[in-house]
Amino acid sequence: MFDNLSDRLEKSFKLLKGQGKITEINVAETLKDIRRALLDADVNFKIAKKFTDDVKVKALGQDVLSAVKPGQMMVKIVKDELAELMGGTFADIKLENKPAVILMSGLQGSGKTTFSGKLANMLKSKKGRHPLLVACDVYRPAAIDQLKVLGEQIKVPVYTEEGNLDPVKIAKAAIQHAKANGNDVVIVDTAGRLAVDEQMMNEISAVKKAINPDEILFVVDSMTGQDAVNTAKEFNDRLDFDGVVLTKLDGDTRGGAALSIRAVVEKPIKFVGTGEKVDALDVFHPDRMADRILGMGDIVSLVEKAQEQFDEEEAKRLQKKLQKNTFDFNDFLKQISQIKKMGNLKDVMGMIPGMGKALKGMDIDDDAFKHIEAIIYSMTPAERENPSLINGGRRKRIANGSGTDIQEVNRLLKQFSETRKMMRMVSQGKNVQRMMSGMQ
Ligand code: GDP
Prior knowledge:
Blueprint lengths: L2 H12 L9 H17 L4 H17 L8 H16 L14 E6 L6 H16 L3 E6 L4 H14 L3 E2 L7 H15 L3 E6 L7 H14 L3 E7 L3 H15 L3 E5 L8 H10 L3 E5 L7 E3 L2 H8 L5 H11 L2 H12 L5 H13 L3 H6 L4 H5 L10 H8 L3 H5 L6 H11 L3 H22 L4 H8 L1
Parallel strand pairs: 1-4, 1-5, 2-3, 2-4, 5-6, 6-7
Antiparallel strand pairs: 7-8
The protein binds guanosine-5'-diphosphate (GDP).
Protein name: Signal recognition particle protein
EC number: 3.6.5.4
Pfam families: SRP54 (PF00448), SRP54_N (PF02881), SRP_SPB (PF02978)
């Protein structure tokens, strides 16, 4: 996502290279480039203009810091402004009431049903809540089935009333059902249309009035660019929603919607959908997204993702094994499965500063570990625990068994022994960097 915009902005900063300080004259070209980059990313013209005007004021008003180069300073100013444009701070959803009622709105195909399932899953698995999903898309039986399938997959109950064509009645009954059954969050999925129409707006307004939701979320496909912004405006005028969910940010979106919606409707983006799978959902943090757009990586999200998967007991066990130098291939397999749990490998790696660009165009997927795992699975338990057993004959057997070749097996064994050495040094608190530079 945002690859193009990231590249363009980076180039614009380069124009300031070699300049001693930012002046009205030397910054003009950079600002023009930034504006063009934003317009090409489908950012609304007025927003792009205001953005560069604000950046200019800030850039010229900066005290000259000898330690910071103008290019770097510009990156920081643009980063802060981008974050500000997307809402500044993180905005959570209101879940205090029991049950908390969340109403979905948006056009057909925007990803409402998928998001309803993702949100239920997130609230259940990360917040220990007991959600109830409600199917109010009464016109499309397929949509009701889709929600049922999702519910089964994530083990969340789905409230439906076959044959009832009145979404207001269904939504009200669902809330009663939630109260009676201990569901503390009710997520109401509604019908969308291909375009904004009066009947749809009347219907969702009636549901809103009847159930008085704690949170109305507007779901929109980020690939639709400026249209997304216009639709957001129309829905907001009618519903006065609380937050925006941008879906399909994993696709080839230019980013215009993410950058313009907040400024146009003055409502925060709260979540972003990053794939079709049920766990492909991120809470939206404007500052982290700004870092990502500028290709600075998103180290905070990465650490949080890692922490979610982090098992303290396991870490202590590993620490002991490392100190005793008994870290083996079974531990290695566990580590791989932990990394895989963090999500799509390319996304995870893309959060590491500087990696986003390096990964562009590279074909990395969750299969990246397949060969490594196959090789380890082809080892006997004794070999996994004691890799020094693996002589030439055994290597050949392992290569055959895993469908790889002997070079690949050799490479893995070498990497493993180097990793083990390195991890041992770290666990003993030695300064690895110094050691490595001494080795060169
Ligand atoms: P609804 O009509 O608003 O309920 O939309 P759906 O939930 O049925 O989604 C429409 C299509 O978009 C489906 O094929 C979804 O799998 C897909 N979709 C939804 N969210 C995302 C996302 O974040 N990324 C991707 N790649 N696809 C998504």
